[in-house]
Amino acid sequence: MQARVLRWVLVTLGVVVLAASVALSALKRPVLAEPIKSNSVNMALEPRHPVTDAMRRAAEAIPGQVAPEIDLPGSDGKNVRLSDLVAKGPVLVVTIKDGCPCSIEAQPFFNQLVKNYAGKATLLGVTDSPRIKAEKYKIDFDVQFPIVTESGKKTFEAYHAMNSVYSTLVGRDGVVIKQYPGYSKAILTDMNKQLAQATGVAAKTLELADAPDRDSSGCPFFEEAPKS
């Protein structure tokens, strides 16, 4: 009887040790997440929000205008002013919409631009997210530039940014150099070139394999076009 009990105890202990070992192994195993794919993968044949001719024409009318001041709270709670940033060098203002997958998919390319022109130019994100969500967005998607929060539509209207993923390049003099109503391989290539010229350095390589082939904008901020 004692031998049988002892054998049962040993078997039970073996099962417990094995289960604990499997559980520990699972804890140590890295959690794999589905990678964020670019528009060129997600949209296959058509962009979610294709850049229209009207959007292109409106963007082409912006260069040469004085960039509207941006003076908004950052995701860290500290106010950020565009005029303070342009005093240090050119600024690329990028619009980000709360919950927009297009902003998420475009984000890695903007991080590349930050790296390419570190210390020479600044990227500034403007989002309609509240501060806490904006800070979470920065952390979740490894945003390498400051983000300010716009509680209304004023900044988006001032920049005629109808959608997210609009980018406006502002020179050291505070004047708009160029506006892009979306992104694509061609747009990002030109954006990289314009930043190089504005900073006076040679253009650096961008990895654009995952960028969409067609000009793609983001989710709209407005139900209809903002008034001029």
Model description:
This protein is of the alpha/beta class and 228 residues long. The protein has 2 domains: 1-32; 39-199, Glutaredoxin (3-Layer(aba) Sandwich). The chain contains 8 helices and 7 strands. The protein has helices at residues 2-28, 39-42, 53-60, 82-86, 101-116, 131-140, 154-158, 185-199, and strands spanning 71-73, 79-81, 91-96, 122-127, 147-149, 167-170, 176-180. The strands form 2 sheets. Strands 5-4-3-6-7 form a 5-stranded mixed sheet. It has a two-stranded antiparallel ribbon with strand order 1-2. Helix 5 links the parallel strand 3 and strand 4. The radius of gyration is 24 Å and the shape is globular.
Summarize the structure.
This protein is α/β, with parallel strands linked by helices. The chain folds into 2 domains: 1-32; 39-199, Glutaredoxin (3-Layer(aba) Sandwich), CATH 3.40.30.10. 39% of the residues lie in helices and 13% in strands.
Instruction: Tell me the CATH topology of the largest domain.
Output: Glutaredoxin
SSE order, one letter for each helix or strand: HHHEEHEHEHEHEEH
The CATH H-level superfamily of the largest domain is Glutaredoxin
Q: Enumerate how many helices there are, as a single number.
A: 8
The total count of strands amounts to: 7
Distance between the termini: 93 Å
Strand content: 5-15%
The biggest sheet, with number of strands, parallel, antiparallel or mixed sense and barrel status, is: 5 strands, mixed
Radius of gyration: 24 Å
Low-confidence stretches: 15-44
- Sheet with the most strands: spatial strand order: 5-4-3-6-7
Total domain count: 2
Report the structural category: alpha/beta
Query: Architecture of the largest domain in CATH?
Result: 3-Layer(aba) Sandwich
The average pLDDT value, as a whole number, equals 85
**Coarse morphology:** globular
Helix content: 25-40%
